[in-house]
Amino acid sequence: MSTTWLQPSRSVIDSLSALSRLLDFLTDLPIDPPPLYFDLEGIKLGRLGSISFVSLHAKKAFTTSSSQRECSLKTVLESKKIPKVFFDVRNDSDALHSHYDISVNGVIDLQLLELATRKGSKEFVAGLAKCIRNDSPVSAALKTAWRETKDTVSCLYDPKRGGRYEVFNERPVRQDLVQYCASDVELLPTLWEAYGARLRMPGKGCWRSMIRKQTQKRIELSQSPSYDGQAKDKVRGPWDSHSIEKEMENWNDDVMLLGIQDGMVLNEEDEWVDPPQRNAEKSSVFTMAACIQ
Fold first, then answer.
1. Residue 233 class from Cβ within 10 Å (0-12 exposed, 13-18 middle, 19+ buried)?
2. Average pLDDT of 18-31?
3. Rounded Cα distance, 267 and 256, in Å
4. Which of 126, 135, 236, 272 could form a disulfide with 264 if both were Cys (CB 3.0 to 4.6 A apart)?
């Protein structure tokens, strides 16, 4: 069953004044669902390359303006209180940290959400194309249009197809590149809806905790001196059967000791707290947002 999907409006932010107007709206954001979805494009994206585009999809975010508050893209990206959704945050985090000293925080990594909710082998992580094909609830026609856009534009930048990566840095930016960059980030909310619904089901607390911890590890690794954004082993998942079993055992021990014996409950961040602190009506957005202290 497909979900009705409306084409978002798009704007190219290519000046300081336009960026300032955008940032005016990035205050007092609602957190449920996650308001901001990011995707970066560049030449060899990472510490040894460059950032050419920062694509941002804001879901129901642009409702109020508050130019009286100080806000920058850095403060938004580093905020623990604003959930930000990425698909495989590692190279994006590496590039932002290396070139602009930005340490992303409050991150939800959709690639890990897919892996955690997948039935069957978790040996390898899935790419964005596979996730959209298999899990996005949008129509088949929209998925076909998305694939065609990706295929067409790849001829511009892929040297194997006669393209060159420098096209990303040409200004003014080509409209087909705008379409290319926007098409990825605009479909991320549909994946959040799919995976988030699965992880809000009863009995998924352990997986939410595992996702949060692994997202933190991804961010910390991406900022380390030894990180290699092109490493072949990046395709391997972070959990094997032994580590999953161990995490489950530890989780069940906590349930027995803290939940059953001590009468504690899980809050919206999957932390054990006394019952008066529990708010069952809160969204579980933050149960998957990795916040580095």
1. exposed
2. 79
3. 16
4. 272
